[in-house]
Amino acid sequence: MGRLIDGKMISREIQDNIRKEVDSLISKGKRKPGLATLLVGDNPASQSYIRSKIRSSERAGFNSFHTSLPETASREDISDIIDRWNRDDNVDGILVQLPLPQHLIGETNEILLQIDPSKDVDGFHPVNIGNLVKGNPTFIPCTPRGIIEILKHEGIETTGKDIVVIGRSQIVGLPLAILFLLKGSFGDATVTVCHSRTRNLPEKTSRADILVAAIGKPHFVTEDMVKEGATVIDVGVNRVEDSTRERGYRLVGDVDTENVLKKVSAITPVPGGVGPMTITMLLLNTLEAYKKNITAV
Ligand code: GUN
Fold first, then answer.
1. For a Cys staple, 254 with which of 143, 218, 236, 243, CB 3.0–4.6 Å?
2. What is d(CA 168, CA 105) in angstroms, rounded to the nearest whole number?
3. Is residue 37 very low, low, confident or very high in pLDDT (cuts 50, 70, 90)?
4. Counting atoms of ligand 1 from 1, which one is nearest the CA of 282?
5. What integer pLDDT is reported at residue 45 of this predicted model?
């Protein structure tokens, strides 16, 4: 029987340290770190993520700047806000919650391109992605960074391991696969990236020492798809109907945790695994941007 990795607890430890560092800098007369968040439209999951991001950043002692725009917002409305935050010295980090509404999805890349790369705490700007691929210091996208931090905390090395990532999204699968592939600590793995066009998926996943599921399909990874003793990282956050819950749904991952747990050595649960780490890494990226800014003046 495997064990559940407590992402909430790891997050709390890191967030406590962030808070202490912020308090110490503020006591020396520095300003607060600033995180600006933009939400366009009323996607319920995005609203919930943004609420958590704001709450956590305030708890860490940050200034939180938030703007919500209606579903009908134009590209110009968004550009104006990003421009203002790019110029604002109290804003260290800028986050545009994705996905954008349907009529703006095709413009996502142009919109992200407009964020000053030194404030791109999501690590989505092409300059930062370029640096990531080159192995240069940069903002590492929050979910991939959170997954690496979980492995570090649990003492699960990646060197020489067979790692399979299911999902090739720009936010998780792709950057994570690159990080595992890079030379050095928590890289140096043999990486396979699987996706909707992959043939014989179970044959690939069952070879993985570390299996990452980031596809957004409830209980997609089943017991027969995993290797005995593997580590499984479940990135999925899927809402499934549940009339026994007051809100009418519950959150489940991409992994059939109950059955997979019998075979593997460790697994991140949903909720309480990768999710809290994503937010914590956003705080860490913002703290790092802030420290650069306050030492630059
Ligand atoms: N949507 C899902 N995950 C993320 C994330 O990490 N950052 C942003 N901006 N949007 C997301």
1. 236
2. 18
3. very high
4. 6
5. 95
pLDDT in tens, 93-115: 999 999 999 999 999 999 999 99
| Identical fold between 29-116 and 142-275 | yes
Task: Pick one of 3.40.50.1370, 3.30.830.10, 3.40.50.10860, 3.40.50.2300 as the CATH number of 29-116.
Answer: 3.40.50.10860
Residues labelled catalytic? 53, 97, 122
Q: Encoding tokens for residue 49?
A: 């993520």
The answer, yes or no, to whether residue 4 has pLDDT greater than 70, is yes
At residue 23, the pLDDT reads 98
Task: For residue 99, give the ligand 1 atom closest to its CA.
Answer: 1
Residue 296: the pLDDT is: 79
Identify the residue whose tokens are 């914590």. 280
Look up residue 84 and give its two tokens.
């203002």
Q: What is the CA radius of gyration of the chain?
A: 19
Is the per-residue pLDDT at 297 higher than 90? no
CATH architecture of 142-275: 3-Layer(aba) Sandwich (3.40)
Phi, psi for 272 (deg, rounded to 5): 100, 10
How far away, in angstroms, is 12 Cα from ligand 1 center?
20
